[in-house]
Amino acid sequence: MILPLEAATQDFQLTLTHILGRMRGIHGDAEIVTQLDETGRTKRILAAELGARAERLAAGLASLGLAPGDRVGVFSWNSQEHLEAYYAVPCSGLVLHTMNPRLSAEQIAYTVEHAGDRAIIVDASLAPALAPIAARLDGVEHYVVIGEDPSNSFSGAADYEELLAAQEAGFEWPELDERSAAALCYTSGTTGNPKGVAYSHRGLCLHTLTMAGHDAYRMSERDRILAVVPMFHAMAWNLPYLAGMVGADLIMPGRHLQPEPLTKLIEAERVTATCGVPTIWMDVLRYAEEHGSDLSSLELAICGGTQVPPQLMREFEQRHGVAIVQGWGMTETLPGAALAHDPPAAGEEERWARREHAGRVTPFYEIRIVADDGAELPRDGESQGEIEIRGPAVASAYFRNEEASAASFDDGWLRTGDVGTIDERGWLRITDRAKDVIKSGGEWISSVDLESALMAHPAVAEAAVIAVPDERWSERPFACVAVSGEVSEAELSEFLAGRFEKWWLPEGFAFLEEIPKTSVGKFDKKALRGIYAERRSDG
Question: What's this model's pTM, rounded to 2 decimal places?
Fold first, then answer.
């Protein structure tokens, strides 16, 4: 009897429970280190013990009445407890909502309400940021606090350690469908409210497997990985699951991302690999040069979120022997969709030319360049158009947002909003951004939101906010305003300060009689960038 082809392999569900079991058993002696304060004090736990604690956390969440499919927010830094939630929540059938403390209070409240969180695990140090909006979060039934919260910010809140201690060992992990949601992240990559991206177990597992390959992160059991990328930012670029699967040690910096504690942590823990945005590594390089720091253990830093300055890559390699490898991805795709490792046997000129690309397309991703009319452009490294992408780790829609989904997804392809080229060997170059949103230090700033706020000032008739180059942050917002009365830069900055975080505020202002318009009456930001971005670049 000849069996049908589909019966030749087992129907094995790709779920994070498998990675949890592998981390806890096969790689149970891997170490997780969390930095506790600025002095370098740390706490340590082996992966086997962390897996046992994740089991108790899952039992604790079940004891609160949470059921599969319920969303659980986590409002915390990169820490052991956050890692425990990364495993306990999705592996028990719940959905992990990684909350971003860098959002405004209004946006944080929106994401919690939109996600439908029934419970929130919150670090006590972040309680002051969450407590003021807790009263409006009617759907949140339970708060679990990590650490001591002297102000008792949340009525009836459970203590994290007490919740775990109250549980018996032996929680029975459920059988999960690999296509069920495991995690939910929000991105504010365009205007308006943040958009939710739901990741399936299958997508996260395949991304983890792909990133472990030589074409991607190139990290293995021999590595001590420093998780600089916040765990609320695109699943920390999947480092928590990658480390668990391959057995690498994982070093968690907590909230201590300043150059001094970060550089000292690299030295003390003999970090070999890491990921993070360029601004972090600019600061680390500067600190290391000024203080003679020992970075000899560090071999690889995957760098992305915004264009990586070529000089940064050269200085790290030449002075410290560290390969800064540029990568490209989005919350909607998970990071690492393209990576710019050195081509084999490449000469110096070609090697550095390639390192300035966004990277070469990673396995299980497909990328195409399309023209304004939707036609696919040649893969010749010259033809420029919008970058579209698809693959098993790429979102197919936004969570509970049909309007945004319709605008961003095209017959299975994600419209990224980035403009670039791709050649026949899969090397991707980003040349521009189709949208007017500003990316500063790896974080998005909405130009439209700033414009709307500026035009709420009685003296401002028109406002257009553009991105201008910045050596430190890659881009900063710059406001062009047409005014109908007397107003100063300081007054406008103060006006905005009551509405936005400090790092959102424009770097400068230009006062015009009228904002230039396109033929259809829109603000001509291309013309404004041509004037003010060039002036800033020229100093």
Answer: 0.84
